[in-house]
Structures are given as C-alpha cells and as structure tokens.
Amino acid sequence: MKKLILLVALTIVFIGQAQVLEPVKWKTSVNKISDSEYELVATATIDKGWHLYSQSVPKDGPISTGFTFVGNKNYLKKGNTSEEVGHTIDDPIFEMEIKYFEKMADFKQRIKLKGKAPFQVKGAVEFMVCNDRRCLSPTEVELIFNVK
C-alpha cells in the first residue's frame, strides 16, 4: 500500500511540473470585400518573449510560417497569403537576417466566391516560434474560416 501511495504522489508531482508550451494562439475571421470577394484572416497572438517567423525565411534558417487551404467548389484562391511588416533583425543564432513577429500578426488570403451559399474554408498553418533561449519544434494548427 505504501508503494502505491508513493507511486501516486510521484505521478502527481511529475504531471504537475510538466508544461505544454503553446506560445502562439490562432484565431480566424472573414472580411467581406465585395459581393464576390472575401478576405480570410488568420490572427496569431504571440506570448511575451516569443517570436513567430515570417512566410519568407532564408535557406538554412528556421521553419517559415506556411498556410495551406483545402480547395472546394465554393471558392477560388486569389494570389498568395499576405502578412504584416513585422521586424527584421540580424539573428545571432541563425547568423542571418530574419523577419519575425512579436505580440500579434495578421495573415490575409483573398478568395473569390463561385456561389452565394454560406460555407467553410478549411486550412492549416505550420509555424515555428523561438524565444531568447530556445526554439520549439514546428507546429501545425488547423484553421476554419466561416464565409457567410
């Protein structure tokens, strides 16, 4: 019985100290541009001290942020996903000039509707974040945009 109590206590302590780091939270929204054109917006909220890399990162650098959208009969993608200005620095770890975002970043994708019925656009974002001490493994998050 003592061994069981000790095992349970150690398990509780171990689980209590384990942390899952999720320094970036994603939110989606949709802006109507015209009757046939909409803008899908993926907003990243970034925890203090962390930074999210741009979609354009030099070769041999960190993993860039990338978006994929599942095509369907309701829309056509117009152009590439755009991003805000962000910060460009000479990164001492990667030894190159890199663009990244702090606190918050909006990524926008325009679409042209083929019909009028409400529908969802499903997609995903793959990204990597770092702070001054470490980088986390690339993460992929599913995104859903409700076009009404």
TrEMBL record:
It comes from the Bacteria. InterPro entries: DsbDN (IPR028250), DsbDN_sf (IPR036929). Residues 28-140 form the Thiol:disulfide interchange protein DsbD N-terminal domain. This is Protein-disulfide reductase DsbD family protein. It comes from Thalassobellus suaedae. The lineage of its organism: Bacteria, Pseudomonadati, Bacteroidota, Flavobacteriia, Flavobacteriales.
